[in-house]
Amino acid sequence: MPGTLKTYKARGIVLNSLKYGDSAMVVHLLTDALGRQSYMVQGVRSSRGRGSKLALFQPMFALEFEGLTSSRQQMHRFREVQSGIVLQRMPFDVRRSTIALFMAEVLYRLVKESEPDSQLFDFVWESIGALDSMEEGVANFHLWFLVNLSRFLGFYPGNEYMPGAWFDACEGSYTVQKPPHATVMTPENARLMNDFVECDVRCLAEIGLNRTQRSAFLEALLAYYGYHLDAIHAVQSVRILQEVF
């Protein structure tokens, strides 16, 4: 007997895609309706589907779709799928596409829940639009994204910044005295943490960083993430990010 079929409408963000057989792929999405889900896409690598379907499933592409579930199949499928945000720059600009690859891998490694989180989803969806449309400050975007993503992962800075303070990554708080352990941000990086907390994404160019400062703060952020979520160490696109920025 055929399984029970159910349809639903949702928005999704592409985190990862894997080839499956000769003409299919498995796509991992962060969705607004069902949290993180996996989708089987048939015919995506066929001559008929190459020009339409394959282009939709790039890292951090935003989708609107009608999903299909079956009681006899573990993975969901698409009944209809289309672009949810018409991207003008991200697919064609190496800086933006590199950041998108990093964002997608971070979310793929860290977000495992199959329960919807509307605040997290809206933050990521709006971040895609911001990255695509921003005129200046692109080189700082991945730092802003990591700082503000921590709000939804449970370890956002927990107190007010004080000038000259250190940032205790274990406690997730600013402190005027240097903590007696190594998992700490220097006063310079603690100030940057606060700058990215307070900065509107449209004003990232106002945070003036050179390549060395940007790299040092990224390393500090990754150490902060690593203390709370070990899976961040599996993110491979960090190396590409550091080459570009």
From TrEMBL:
Coiled-coil regions listed in the entry: none
Pfam family, one: RecO_N
A GO BP entry: double-strand break repair
Record's keyword terms, sorted: DNA damage, DNA recombination, DNA repair
GO cellular component: bacterial nucleoid
All residue ranges annotated as the DNA replication/recombination mediator RecO N-terminal domain in the record: 7-82
Family of this protein: Belongs to the RecO family.
Job description of the protein: Involved in DNA repair and RecF pathway recombination.
PANTHER family, alphabetized: DNA REPAIR PROTEIN RECO (PTHR33991:SF1)
Protein name: DNA repair protein RecO
Gene: recO
